[in-house]
Design a protein that fits this description.
Elements lengths: L7 H38 L9 E6 L1 H6 L8 H13 L4 E4 L9 H12 L4 E8 L2 E3 L3 H6 L2 E4 L13 E3 L1 E4 L2 E4 L1 H10 L3 E4 L2 E4 L2 E4 L6 E3 L11 E3 H6 L11 E6 L7 E2 L9 E2 H14 L4 E2 L2 H21 L2 H23 L3 E2 L2 H47 L1 H16 L4 H32 L8 E4 H18 L3 E4 L7 E4 L1 H17 L6 E9 L2 E7 L7 H6 L8 H5 L8 H11 L3 E7 L3 E9 L14 E2 L1
Parallel strand pairs: 1-13, 1-14, 2-3, 2-14, 3-5, 17-18, 20-22
Antiparallel strand pairs: 3-4, 6-12, 7-8, 9-10, 10-11, 15-16, 19-21, 20-26, 22-23, 23-25, 24-25
Helix pairs in contact: 1-9, 1-11, 3-4, 6-8, 9-10, 9-11, 10-11, 11-13, 12-13, 13-18, 14-15, 15-18
Length: 621
């Protein structure tokens, strides 16, 4: 499991809250379209078993239009004859899905009115226009038991009809839907209103919104609605027996009538309004209501999904966390379908958007934490390797001196003066070794951001002279002269004196190590505006430009340096660079093979202070 820092305790929950906010915003923008598509898919997947319908269609289809003079204008006389046949079969109710608002042939209208008067439980239709209701003719209304509206409610996103409004108002006049009036009359019970439901007899009808929308449960896909063509009935009166004890829906199904709408089953082929009204009646008659769960349930569930994703990646980590994330996405996708199989609608888009937003946010943050910890562990391993290399590289000389001196004291009988001399050497080398360890640890702490740089004034001339003095014995053994060019005594900088001494001393020892005998090393110092320039120039083996570009890489040594026989690991200049950069400076290098090298430390100058004049030059040959 990845390590999570203290900042994670604040940032991580904030990101998860932001992810939930993004999910809510996405749901507000895209939710309706996604929910509709999901609803239609679930509708097609969860088809109920076919049932014995309580309604039958008397359809004005294409074959009927062929025998009507003038199309639907000539339907009233044939319709009157058909209604008489239907009424004789004693149906429970007859719902006419044709708006008979305009006067027609007086003889045909009179015949139709007479047929209506002979029909019990007759429901005629009305349609809502911009200026009010388009009602049937008065003579037809007087014959009707009820008037019902035939308004559909296609979705504004995709024009698919999934629900119908059971109640519509125009001014002070309210009409119930045609199928609801037919259902009421067939049950011989009043409509009892209450918030969120309508009750007819023992049937509770769940509704939504001010128009009391009811989702329609259409017949299973591929199951044709029982129907009799008006032409067939007129040609074969015995077919009227099919209407006995049924609720009869009369209206047009021919495509030429343009009364067609899309449904979840349409698949590009619209359904007639007559069939939609009949399906709405069957929904009530069979009790196949599809109700919606409260929105608060969906919001709480979506919040739980985001929290679950956050906890999974917080406490599991690795493969188990990603498996948990996949599980959360599956739950968010399948939960709405599980509710739909029980005729309940659970918000699909909000659940899925929340699951994706929460899982992706948690996974991304976990990935960043893992990568950050990996980089940290790699840096720690690198520093450990550097420490080991530093021990072997920088501490070999004082350890050898201490070991050799101790051996001399233990093996040989030495004079008191010699013993004191060796003891002083052991003491000085031990202190030198301790300073090396402290310097190295300080450099590592500075690089890791675990230590603040000392801010003390440094007299540059005095510091450089100290380094030259310490390097003098090493130069003398190779007969190399060290020339210290005159420096202004007031040159000062601010920083860590021990670290800067180490950097200067390292440059001097490198110059001596890689220079031939009887050559010269020159040290200069000057102030250039707000910067100090401390340069160490030798007459050694030099480097080409490719080697110069790599010289500060850890463990890098030039080919000539390796061939020189001088011991080294290639980390000294890397440490020098870290020290200089921590002081806000940089190192400039100029070199040519066989002509020597010049390393220049460019550092910010501190406040100038007048100091007593000391020796301006130190030369050793």
């Amino acid at each position: 499991m990845a390590r999570w820092g203290s900042k994670t305790g604040i940032l991580y929950p904030v990101l998860l809250v932001a992810a939930f906010g993004v999910a809510l915003a996405s749901n507000w923008i895209f939710g309706a379209s996604v929910d509709n598509a999901a609803y239609d898919l679930m509708f097609r997947l969860d088809q109920p078993q076919p049932w014995a319908t309580q309604s039958v269609l008397l359809a004005i289809d294409e074959r009927t239009l062929e025998i009507l003079p003038g199309g639907m204008r000539g339907v009233r006389k044939p319709l009157a004859e058909a209604i008489e046949l239907v009424a004789a079969a004693r149906p429970k109710a007859v719902a006419v899905d044709i708006v008979l608002a305009d006067p027609g042939d007086p003889v045909a209208d009179a015949a139709l009115a007479a047929a209506f008067r002979a029909t019990p439980n007759l429901v005629l239709s009305s349609q809502l226009l911009r200026d009010g209701w388009e009602a049937p003719l008065a003579e037809f209304q007087r014959a009707a038991t009820a008037i019902g509206h035939v308004q559909a409610l296609p979705s504004s996103e995709d024009a698919v009809t999934r629900a119908i409004p059971l109640e519509m108002r125009a001014g002070y006049q309210r009409l119930w839907a045609l199928p609801l009036e037919a259902f009421r009359l067939s049950r011989r019970a009043p409509i009892i209103e209450s918030p969120g439901t309508l009750q007819v007899g023992s049937t509770l009808i769940p509704t939504i919104g001010p128009e009391r929308q009811m989702r329609v449960r259409f017949l299973p896909e591929g199951e044709p609605f029982p129907r009799v063509s008006l032409r067939q009935l007129l040609e074969n009166h015995s077919l009227a027996s099919r209407f006995a004890g049924k609720v009869v829906f009369v209206g047009g199904t021919a495509q030429a009538l343009h009364d067609r709408l899309f449904t979840p089953y349409s698949s590009g082929i619209p359904t007639s309004g007559l069939e939609i009204n009949a399906a709405a009646f069957e929904t009530m008659a069979q009790g196949l209501f599809i109700s919606e769960l409260p929105v608060a349930w969906t919001i709480l569930f979506s919040m739980a999904l985001v929290i679950a994703a956050g906890l999974a990646f917080r406490f599991l980590g690795g493969g188990p966390a990603y498996l948990a994330g996949v599980g959360i996405l599956l739950i968010a996708t399948l939960m709405p379908y599980a509710f739909f199989t029980h005729q309940r609608i659970f918000g699909f888009s909000m659940s899925v958007f929340s699951a994706w937003a929460g899982t992706l946010t948690a996974a991304a943050y976990y990935h960043l934490v893992v990568r950050r910890n990996l980089r940290r562990s790699e840096a720690e391993r690198t520093r450990y390797q550097q420490a080991v290399q530093f021990v072997t590289h920088e501490m070999r000389t004082p350890l050898s001196a201490i070991q050799g001196s101790s051996e001399l004291i233990s093996r040989y009988q030495l004079t008191e003066d010699k013993r004191k001399q060796i003891a002083m050497l052991i003491n000085s080398e031990s202190k030198r070794l301790a300073r090396m360890v402290e310097i190295f640890l300080n450099v590592e702490r500075l690089s890791a951001g675990q230590m603040e740089l000392k801010r003390e004034p440094i007299a540059v001339k005095e510091m450089v002279e100290t380094c030259v003095t310490r390097a003098h014995p090493l130069a003398e053994r190779k007969h190399i002269g060290i020339t210290l060019e005159p420096m202004a005594p007031e040159m000062r900088m601010t920083g860590d004196r021990e670290l800067m001494e180490y950097a200067c001393y390292n440059l001097l020892t490198n110059a001596i190590k890689y220079s031939p005998q009887k050559t010269k090393v020159t040290v200069t110092g000057a102030q250039d505006g707000g910067h100090l320039r401390i340069a160490v120039k030798d007459q050694g083996i030099g480097m080409d430009q490719k080697e110069v570009r790599q010289i500060f890489q850890k463990f890098y040594r030039t080919r000539k340096a390796e061939e020189s026989g001088e011991a080294g690991t290639g980390i000294g200049l890397s440490i020098v660079q870290q020290i200089v950069e921590q002081h806000g400076g940089q190192i400039e290098v100029t070199s040519q093979p066989g002509a020597g090298s010049c390393f220049t430390l460019v550092l910010p100058a501190g406040q100038a202070v007048r100091l007593p004049v000391t020796n301006a030059e130190h030369t050793s040959r």
